[in-house]
Amino acid sequence: MNPRPVCRDGVEQLMDYLEGTLPDADRALIEEHVASCPRCVAFVESYRRTPEILRRATLAELPDDLAASLHRFLASRR
Amino acid sequence: MSVPVAAEDDEALAARAAAGDEAAFEKLVDRYQARVYRLAFRLTGGDADAKDVLQEAFLSAYRALPTFRGESRFSSWLYRIATNAALMNRRARARRPADSLESLLPRFDADGRHCGEPADIGAASRAEEVLDRKRLAEKARAGLDRLPELYRDAFVLRDLQELPTHEVAEVLGIAPAAVRQRVHRARLMLRGYLTELAGGKA
Asked: Cβ separation of A60 and B47 shorter than 8 Å?
C-alpha cells in the first residue's frame, strides 16, 4: 500500500479498520492520515453514524394483535 | 433481549419441535417473533408485507424443521428462511426498479482526496436534526429500497438487526470478508443518501 495514504485509501479500508481486521501497520497509517485531515474526520463520523440513524428510523415493534394472530395462523396450518 | 440462563437453548427446542412437540415450537415462535418482524419490516419496508413475511417465515420454518440439523445456530437458520421469504415477497410485488444509490458513493479528486468541505462531507451526521422523525422514517425505507439487493440483506442483518459479522455470514452462506465488503458498500451508499437528504454534497 502507498506509504502516504490519501483519503480514498482510508475510505476503502474503513470497514476493516472499524471491525479490527486490518493489519497494525495499515491501521497506523490510516490513523496518521485521519489525524491531519478534517475531511476524513467528518467522513468517518458520518460513516459511523449512518447505521445508527437508519436503525432508529426503521425500528418497528411487533404489534400485539399480530403476535396473537401469528399463533392462530400457524395453528390453523398444522 | 436477555434470555434467562436456565432457559432451554434454541437448538434443544428445535429438536423437540422437529419431533412433533408443538409446545416447543410455540416457545421458539415467542422467542423470535419480534426479531423476525423487525427484520421483515426492514427488508420489505411496510407493515402489511412484514406481516406476510413473518407468517410465511414461521410456516416455512415449521415445515422445514425436520431438515434442521443443528449445523448452524437455530437463529441463523431462521433468519435465512426469513430473508428468503422477504426476497420472495419483494419479487412478487414486481416493483419497478428504483434508482440505485450507486451515484451517491463518495467522490475524490484526481489525487484521491475528498471533494468538498468538511461540513458538506459530514452532513449525514445531522440527518436527524434536519428531518423530522416521520419524514426520516419514510426516507429511510425508500433508501433501503434503492440499495442493490446484494447489499441490502447484508446491511440490514449486520447494521440494523445488529447480528455479528460471522452470523450474517452464516445466514447468507458467504464468507465474513464478503459480508464486510457488502456492508461497507451499503454504508457508503446510504451515507451519501443521508448526506443528500441533509443538504450536503455526497
From this structure: yes
